[in-house]
Amino acid sequence: MFAFTIRRLLFAIPTLLAISFIIFAILDLAPSDPTGNLPLTISPEVRAQIRSSLGLDEPFPIRYLLWLKQFFINEPLNLIEGWTGWTLGDGERMRVTSWATRSPVVDLIIERMPQTLWVVGMSQVIAIVIAVPIGVISAYKQYSWFDQIGTFVSMVGFSIPTFFTGLVFIVLFSVHLQWFPSIYDTNHVIDSWDSFVFQIKQMIMPTMVLALATAAQLSRYMRASMLDNLQQDYVRTARAKGLTERVVVMIHVLRNSMIPVVTVIALNIPTIFGGAIITEQIFRVNGIGQLLIIGIQGADIPLVQTLTFIFAVLIVLFNLIADVLYGILDPRIRYE
Amino acid sequence: MRDTIAPLLDVAQLKTVFHTRSGAVHAVNSVSFSVAPGELVGVVGESGSGKSVTMMSLMNLLPRSAEIVGGEVLFEGRDVRAMNRAELLRLRGRDVGFVFQDPMTSLNPVFTVGRQITERLRKHMNMSKAEAKMRAAELLSLVGISDAARRLQDYPHQFSGGMRQRVVIAIALACDPKLLIADEPTTALDVTIQAQIIALVRDLRQKLDMGIVWITHDLGVVAGIADRVIVMYAGQIVEQGPVRELFARPQHPYTRALLETLPSVTGARSERLRTIEGQPPSLGGAPDRCPFAPRCAHTFGRCLTENPQRIEVGGGHDVACWWDPQTGEMRHV
């Protein structure tokens, strides 16, 4: 297993290099101009100077290599310096800089990360906590009223997009009932019980909108997997041993049913970091998703490049984690 | 002898129905039989004759679509159908062992073999972890698995088919059951492994003195190990008797046909294997006639209007048929 993990990590390097090249090339081919948003009164000569100062007059391969160096060497070194307080070398390095804000992209991302992790991450946790029991009970009591209602709610959650449920929530709970604020206040500081309650209140709506969509999907996987396993012969063997239904279902069947579901959950985790673009936009949560939208709208190529590439890294990483988890949960799968 | 000892298991008029979209299927129809302590009863019949469903009905291990609609199951005089949940679990756990057909799927793939044995011991024999482990290793050596203590940590997929069936048998024997129900335990195995498993059960039976119900469609196996044979057809018992008696004087046309289908070792090679013409009947609707009548060579008018009851023909041998093979005429009952 250890050797397998190391080998897979090494394999990830060429994969990620290829992905970084594709992302860089596609964004470079896109007909965008970093000076496009500037006032028309600025003359073409000045525009050319601005472009040259952004390094855009270098040929494509040079720019790609420089970006690689900035991203893979300069930024990690900078992070290490930030964490440890050491100074590596002279501490002066070119960083990946946003064209729009002129601040380093990584700093922007670190600024945005907590909101996204809180809201989107919490929604995933809630989704799992809701979906697993619903899936188990739905499968165990197949075609019961519980299962029928669960199926209906899942279908609703599955088929209605988050921008719609988000607006319905806002109209219902913010406008009419006035229970929760419709806009997420990022500057809110938790320093007392009341401010903590406010933080919970402002998190509830975006979290529940996302949790509903994810739970709908997960509970279907869970139900299908449980149904599949409940019909297996080993369940009859377990019952024949005189084990209680609780042990048969919650230990024997659940452990087997979790195998595919855990994979789905692990593959879902990169989307937590990626942010829920639409939901963040609706509730004004200034997280990663919103940052990406702003970057795209402002033709902020370095920002978009870096964010997209970080998503790619996370996806490759969690694919590997899913495979390793699969091997841990299912003894029949051993990677040599 | 059968009458002098109280039976271990006594089943009377058991009826099990499957609820399907196309209506009720009468999978087990008024089945009555008993098993004495230490006796090995072979149950034969073709696929779909209700052998397995009958045995699953005994301890209520039926799939959700099946329902027991009538009859009585007495285990050592206790009414199994009237038991509460805890009593039933205790009966399943302590007194009865099950061995199922396919050893490839009847063990849980994600738990070690040791855990699957000790789980039962700890629940029903109140053993500590260490005691249960020792006992599990003993059981594995009892069923002929070498290096037992180490193999407890292995997962089912690390065993071959025959070895897995030995593990299933070890689980079944864990709590010293009084009754072992083996549902086609050798069908999924190849012939040499099959012979080993049969030898193992024969050996264990002498060591442990338990009643065994052995379901199979292989008459050869039954002839080799059973004390008594039950022949099932279309959810009913059509003939029942001591093994020698039944093989020497088969009464029911179905039993006779079954025996004729056995290939002979001495017969000419070129001869085609014999078959029983036709298909078993579908089991929808309560039977008001002999289910074998459409395939039978000796059908009377009465066979089509009245389902024969089992009649004693001497020597603990009974048959459910209107035709009398001695005279070739209808029985006068």
UniProtKB/TrEMBL annotation, chain A:
GO annotations of cellular component type: plasma membrane
Gene3D superfamilies attached to this UniProt entry: MetI-like
The keyword Transmembrane is assigned to this record: yes
Main subcellular location of this protein, as a coarse class: membrane
PROSITE patterns the record matches: ABC_TM1
Topology relative to the membrane: Multi-pass membrane protein
GO biological process terms on file: transmembrane transport
Highest taxon in the source lineage: Bacteria
UniProt xrefs under Pfam families: BPD_transp_1, BPD_transp_1_N
Residues in ABC transmembrane type-1 domain copies: 113-322
Localization (cell): Cell membrane
Transmembrane segments: 9-30, 117-140, 152-176, 196-216, 259-283, 303-329
Keyword vocabulary terms for this entry: Cell membrane, Membrane, Transmembrane, Transmembrane helix, Transport
Entry similarity comment: Belongs to the binding-protein-dependent transport system permease family.
Official protein name in the record: ABC transporter permease
Organism: Pontivivens nitratireducens
